[in-house]
């Protein structure tokens, strides 16, 4: 029996009463006329989980009774980063409503969509529907728990998004997906740059970066989403302290660099450790990752980072490389990261103020 590829899909729908209305946690809603939004996903791992409560007593040699305890869904998806609605939804899931939009639509620099963190982040929940050849599986109340970005020389830039939410709903009939980003290709590392700035006064585009990875962890408080009288979440899991970490691998095992911005082995050996801080300038970020395909671009920047201990080794077969990990911190403006997605033209959805639709 051959696989039915036409019915393999993942769709995301923000749980709102209307396109810009109030949130309705755990209830699927018709966000826009294009809802749900299907992504070109490489693979997915969404699944129902539950705790099995097993009861035994002293009069029997084995357990005799059992019930389901806490029920929840979790899993994720891996995909190539491309400038479509799925990317917009994932960035919306990470940054919430704190976004600004270039409402002029057509401009010289393109249609710009900017996100950044704030102290009053309000993150959305989603209904995620997964087509698996025979039936559609529905997971409601799904909240982003972590987002990872990875780029290596000679490869597409990729993203992994993990979610957690309510117990799976009943399976239903399949639909044929329509991909809004079908005309876009993914960002490739050949069209990317990595820029470093130690003080925010100037910046350097590194030519020795072999790979880079970023991970955003929301640290969702799932215990607070439960209550006596329900097996699954009854309220949206709230994010706790956000953690942003990353690793840069340099193809050249540089002990010291020719400029003051590119990190090197000696950078991490600084007394008391090394911190790159943009000083709130907003011009030269501590670490900045930029992808472009000539028509669209994605820029992810960290405002302040603390470098960890370097890793360098050598063997008889492999060229020596340098790996440096870092932890992102809040800068003096209480900003940890910013994200800018630029298109050459505006869509009707974006022009009307909908912050989670891109194409």
Class derived from helix and strand content? mainly beta
Helix and strand sequence? EEEEEHEEEEEEEEEEEHEEEEEEEH
The residue fraction in helices comes out at under 10%
Write down the overall mean pLDDT. 85
Main sheet properties: 14 strands, antiparallel
- How far apart the termini lie comes to 36 Å
Taking all Cα atoms into account, the compactness measure Rg is 23 Å
Total beta-strand segments = 23
As residue ranges, the low-confidence spans are: 103-109, 347-355
**Tertiary shape:** globular
Taken as a percent bin, the fraction of beta residues is 35-45%
Summed up, the helix count is: 3
Q: How many domains, in number, for the residues?
A: 1
Provide a descriptive summary of the structure in words.
- This protein is mainly beta and 359 residues long.
- The protein has one domain (5-49, 67-351).
- It has helices spanning 85-95, 265-268, 348-351, and strands spanning 8-14, 37-39, 41-44, 47-55, 65-80, 99-101, 111-116, 126-132, 136-152, 158-165, 192-196, 204-205, 209-217, 220-221, 238-239, 243-250, 275-277, 287-292, 297-302, 304-307, 311-313, 321-328, 337-343.
- Strands 1, 2, 3, 4, 5, 8, 9, 10, 13, 16, 17, 20, 21 and 22 form a 14-stranded antiparallel sheet that branches.
- The longest helix has 11 residues, at 85-95.
- It is globular and about 70 Å long.
List keywords for this structure.
359 residues, globular, 5% helix, 14-stranded antiparallel beta sheet, seven-stranded antiparallel beta sheet, mainly beta
């Amino acid at each position: 029996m051959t696989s039915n590829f036409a019915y393999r899909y993942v769709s995301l729908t923000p749980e709102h009463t209307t396109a810009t209305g109030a949130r309705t946690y755990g209830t699927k809603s018709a966000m826009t006329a294009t809802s749900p939004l299907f992504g070109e996903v490489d693979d997915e791992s969404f699944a129902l989980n539950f705790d099995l409560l097993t009861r035994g007593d002293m009069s029997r040699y084995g357990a005799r009774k059992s019930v389901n305890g806490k029920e929840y869904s979790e899993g994720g998806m891996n995909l190539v980063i491309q400038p479509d609605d799925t990317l917009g939804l994932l960035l919306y899931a990470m940054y919430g409503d704190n976004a600004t939009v270039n409402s002029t639509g057509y401009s010289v620099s393109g249609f710009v969509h900017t996100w950044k963190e704030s102290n009053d982040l309000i993150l959305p929940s989603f209904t995620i529907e997964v087509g698996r050849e025979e039936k559609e599986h529905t997971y409601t109340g799904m909240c982003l728990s972590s987002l990872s970005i990875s780029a290596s020389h000679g490869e597409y830039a990729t993203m992994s998004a993990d979610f957690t939410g309510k117990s799976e709903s009943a399976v239903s009939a399949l639909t044929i997906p329509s991909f809004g980003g079908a005309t876009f290709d993914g960002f490739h590392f050949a069209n990317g740059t990595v820029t470093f700035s130690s003080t925010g006064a100037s910046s350097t585009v590194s030519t020795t970066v072999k790979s880079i990875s970023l991970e955003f962890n929301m640290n969702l408080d799932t215990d607070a989403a439960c209550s006596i009288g329900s097996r699954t979440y009854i309220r949206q899991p709230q994010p706790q302290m956000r953690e942003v970490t990353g690793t840069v691998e340099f193809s050249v095992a540089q002990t010291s660099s020719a400029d003051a911005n590119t990190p090197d082995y000696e950078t991490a050996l600084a007394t008391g450790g090394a911190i790159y801080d943009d000083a709130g300038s907003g011009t030269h970020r501590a670490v900045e990752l930029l992808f472009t395909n000539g028509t669209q671009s994605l820029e992810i920047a960290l405002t302040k980072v603390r470098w960890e201990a370097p890793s360098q080794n050598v063997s008889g077969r492999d060229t020596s490389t340098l790996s440096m990990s870092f932890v992102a911190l809040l800068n003096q403006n209480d900003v940890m990261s910013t994200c800018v997605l630029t298109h050459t033209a505006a869509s009707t959805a974006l022009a009307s103020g909908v912050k989670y639709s891109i194409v």
